[in-house]
Amino acid sequence: MVLITLVDENMNHIQRLFDLTGKTAVITGGSRGLGLQIAECLGDLGARLVLSARKADELEAARTHLATRGVEAEWIAADGARESDIGRLADQALSRLGHVDILVNNAGATWGAPAEAYPLDAWDKVMNLNVRGLFLLTQHFGRKSMIPRRYGRIINIASIAGLSGNAPGTMQTIAYNTSKGAVVNFTRALAGEWGVYNITVNALAPGFFPSKMTQGSLDRLGVESMCTGVPLQRLGDHEDLKGAAALFASDAGKHITGQILAVDGGISAV
């Protein structure tokens, strides 16, 4: 009986480390795909959520989906590449939540074209959302909520595309790769600056997950080809980011900052 009691107490302690009851989170690109997967995770752990994306109908569908899981979520439609929308999103989220404990910078865009013919407007579109918008929103929440309260968890969604180039004959996504490389070092640099405020800054670097963004590559190359060279021999699924997101968002990861965690079936390790 004593052993069982100790096991139960230890289990409860571990569960408390991941508990997000009473915490608040903003998730950009939260209406579908990887953003919605992370929203499910943080909501299931008890966080109150504000989701953001450009399309109101998709955000409302995500809110309805989360409600079936018992997760409280609101949404704010905003374009993460527009400075005016970013400021409005920050102000409205803080008005609704009171403060923001967790920020998940997930919104992103890609564009495929050969580097020698890459359109400048496509380059700007990718950079404005993936880098500039991410910086501005993080700055808003840091300045207005996290730094004054001396608490924050920032999770940036990078990509294994930011850790290396593309194999010949696969993708031609120079702006996307460049932007995600910037997110990787943005994460490290900000972790160094904001650690003094008890703010952790980490990044997840997903490999290939089926999503609207990756559908074109999957259609062109095929699932079997995309799994070639992946040690686990599969793509990511609708659960595979949740454990890592829970670690970075919770007290279980309170001594982890400036880290880039690849969730990619091992492809970046070989």
UniProtKB/TrEMBL annotation:
Alphabetized GO MF terms: 3-oxoacyl-[acyl-carrier-protein] reductase (NADPH) activity
This protein's UniProt keywords: NADP, Oxidoreductase
SUPFAM superfamilies, per database record: NAD(P)-binding Rossmann-fold domains
Keyword hit for Signal: no
InterPro entries according to UniProt: KR_dom, NAD(P)-bd_dom_sf, Sc_DH/Rdtase_CS, SDR_fam, Sec_Metab_Biosynth_SDR
Annotated family: Belongs to the short-chain dehydrogenases/reductases (SDR) family.
Protein name in the entry: Rhamnolipids biosynthesis 3-oxoacyl-(Acyl-carrier-protein) reductase
Ranges of residues in domain Ketoreductase: 23-197
Top-level class of the enzyme under EC nomenclature: oxidoreductase
Enzyme Commission numbers on file: 1.1.1.100
Naturally occurring in which organism (per UniProt): Paraburkholderia piptadeniae
Pfam families in the record: adh_short
Tagged with keyword Oxidoreductase: yes
PROSITE patterns on file: ADH_SHORT (PS00061)
